[in-house]
Amino acid sequence: MGDTEGGDLRSVLPRIMQLGNLMNRSGLGERAMKRIGADLDRPGLSILLSLHMTGKALRVGEIADRMQVAGPHVTRHLHVLERRRLVRGLPDPDDGRARLVELTPEGAEIADGYVTTLLGWFGEALAGWSPQDRRTFYDLLLRFTDDFAAFLSASTDED
Amino acid sequence: MGDTEGGDLRSVLPRIMQLGNLMNRSGLGERAMKRIGADLDRPGLSILLSLHMTGKALRVGEIADRMQVAGPHVTRHLHVLERRRLVRGLPDPDDGRARLVELTPEGAEIADGYVTTLLGWFGEALAGWSPQDRRTFYDLLLRFTDDFAAFLSASTDED
DNA sequence: TATTGTTATACTCTATAACTATA
DNA sequence: TATAGTTATAGAGTATAACAATA
Known about the structure:
By secondary structure, chain A is mainly α. Chain A folds into two domains: 9-122, Winged helix-like DNA-binding domain superfamily/Winged helix DNA-binding domain (Arc Repressor Mutant, subunit A); 130-159. The first copy, chain A, has seven helices and three strands; from the N terminus they run αααβααββαα. In chain A, 21% of the residues are buried. Chain A binds a DNA duplex through residues 41-43, 59-61, 69-77, 92, 95-99.
């Protein structure tokens, strides 16, 4: 009984890993960057995407949280981005220790171009799919990431 | 028309990225490793998993291909794994330049324990899903990774 | 005293170049 | 001469520790 399901899941795990590698390691990001004519390292792009996806100015610590990296890493890459005028820092009116970071129009353009490029590729890859299958896949993938993230954070305490 | 679909896809992209980060960056691997009482860095584990998933001895270059890294990276980590008796190298009977690498029972045990742990977690995260939804999700995810990988390699030439 | 962020430092991961041995 | 692998070296990515400023 459980055997059959375990077997199924067992065949899916490599694909989840593969997908993860495809997204991070496969040079996909570099290709997209090249396509839009931008020249940015991955951490720099990641900062831009964090700001872009959130759609508002973020504190340095918030960016680090979203990227799942330590604070100093963000600080260093922000220097580069600021020098290139892709982000700009503002004082946080609510907290004098903190600093708000927001995209400049140039930074927003890169982030948006990157996302649009990737979306285009996904769209092409799914060109042969029926609308129903696409819908179903989107729904289940959303549900899966939610459930899995929830499970992970719920089980963080146990250890 | 296309607008609606673009909107859907647009909401899914962050999840695919999130899933990628969950798999690579989130400390998931470290947690699994700790759970099974193993102490291995990520590249070392990755080598073990490559061998485990393939189920046979691989040449150094084949391991590098699967990991999507350069050869010397594999060589260096193989030294560590060999010293710890988690893999062992054999001469390739077909090619005197090459070297075959295979898991020892100890290495196989770690790889298997790791995979089993992750599968358990995925299973728990999907505990509330109906068997049909699980099946559908597995099927569509397989199809998606296949189609996407195919698209990527097909469009590699263009550039 | 706790928290936000920065500076300084060090370590891990990975790539490139130079080389050796076999094909 | 081309290919498989190794050794040597360098660079990117990231963490930790020590510090400054504000809460």
